[in-house]
Amino acid sequence: MPIKLAANAYGKNAVNLSRVLRHAGHHEFRQVSVSVQLTGDFEAAHTVGDNALILPTDTQKNTVYALAREYFTGPIEEFGLVLARHFVARNPQVSKARIEIVEHLYQRMSFDGQAHPHAFVGGGSEKRRAAVELRADGTTTVWAGLKGLLLLKTADSGFVGYPKDEYTVLPETTDRILATECEAEWEYTAADLDFETQYQQIRTNLLRTFAGHQSLSVQHTLYAIGEEILKSNDAVKEVSLVMPNKHHIPFNLEPFGQTNTNEVFVATDAPFGYITGTVVRG
């Protein structure tokens, strides 16, 4: 039986980059982690050890830093496009470049209504994401998203009407805490968009829908978020969401002569429900 190399790719992951943009009167601080993946004519490297077409991953890392000074001045999607175009244009053996960027969010500190010119506070667990794929024929796909976004609401959430068997002890409820650590990714229909405006609008759609939705389950709210994003943003082709159910379980206060009127809970890290879904047009 003949043996041959199938799908393969290589690149440099976790290129951690910080960038200071020095504006007149204030600074802007950006911190990202960039991953590069190249697909192409690399069979000889695998089969006979010929590295003639292998761009070193150290060179890929250096390219990220070298291009950052001039080109990492706006949304991470735009920087991803610059990097992908660089690797494809300079390396004819590359049939596809994929760039993934995760941004750690910082904002300027503010005191007495005045933003400090060069002191920053981190954005907690939330991170912004982007991915760009560019093929040698020019086909370009851009994804954006976020992860680590902690969401919680203390009303307008319930869970009833589910199947029950001999192992079911979960009581039905029409009034519970709904909490999740949301991860979202959406695919854009074009690569020449105002990515910053699009991102902020989509994030606002997500937050507003979560807050205002009368949730009958996590699945119910996940779909509502995806539906609203697609309805409100023509530039989005589809949206995928991961919404683990971070359980807050009412604590039994009866042994202490108290009634728990949905005010005291046990916050649990594990186990947790894990809900995913992709919402598309048509």
UniProtKB/TrEMBL annotation:
Q: Does the keyword Oxidoreductase apply?
A: yes
Which InterPro entries would you find in this protein's record?
Uricase (IPR002042)
**Enzymatic class:** oxidoreductase
Q: Which NCBIfam families match?
A: urate_oxi
What SUPFAM superfamilies does the entry give? Tetrahydrobiopterin biosynthesis enzymes-like
Record the organism.
Answer: Hymenobacter caeli
Function field: Catalyzes the oxidation of uric acid to 5-hydroxyisourate, which is further processed to form (S)-allantoin.
Q: Which GO terms describe its molecular function?
A: urate oxidase activity
Indicate the family of this protein. Belongs to the uricase family.
Pathway membership of this protein? Purine metabolism; urate degradation; (S)-allantoin from urate: step 1/3
Enzyme Commission code(s) on record: 1.7.3.3
What positions belong to coiled-coil segments? none
One family from Pfam that matches here is Uricase
Which reaction does this enzyme catalyse, per its entry? Answer: urate + O2 + H2O = 5-hydroxyisourate + H2O2
Q: Any idea what this protein is called? A: Uricase
UniProt keyword annotations, A-Z = Oxidoreductase, Purine metabolism
